[in-house]
Amino acid sequence: EPEVTQTPSHQVTQMGQEVILRCVPISNHLYFYWYRQILGQKVEFLVSFYNNEISEKSEIFDDQFSVERPDGSNFTLKIRSTKLEDSAMYFCASSEAPSGRTTGELFFGEGSRLTVL
Amino acid sequence: DAKTTQPPSMDCAEGRAANLPCNHSTISGNEYVYWYRQIHSQGPQYIIHGLKNNETNEMASLIITEDRKSSTLILPHATLRDTAVYYCIVRPGGSQGNLIFGKGTKLSVKP
To answer: Chain B residue with minimal CA distance to A30?
Structure first.
């Protein structure tokens, strides 16, 4: 069964450092998402991406964050200068293009745990 | 903010049906009810969704009231592996809009 894969599974970084989290969405999917979950809290939407541009973003997704699809397979989330409060699990998700035949479901990866010291 | 209300936690005996309620009294006509679950700290997993008719798949059944203001997710024979946080989410059907997760219901299946 196709799945969304994320790397790294866990990254530890110093405050102020840049971090890039990588995701390989399911191959025929065209919509991509990043969510985060701070320990013990809700899953929060960060950004959605389609046709090489951001389609929607939350207030969490400020100028410190950026997303990119550098090639035909990867989808990345970059945090320019990490803060302590960026420590969280980051989930990537993908979904098919809109179609009457789709369920509209998002497929999530297993997450990348970011620890900022 | 999430447009649904769910109990924070529920217990269920292994092998019995787990019935998870959700209130969505402000649901609009084009919004579907989606259910996802999150086992421990894994990525959320899609379970089922529906508009107004009851739905069933290999994982669960979804019962939606006639006025669509509430629904119930049914796991017919809960196992220990069904212990998870279950999220009820309303979202326009077929859209690629983001999912808004609430706090969900923590279901504990006990032996």
So the answer is: B96
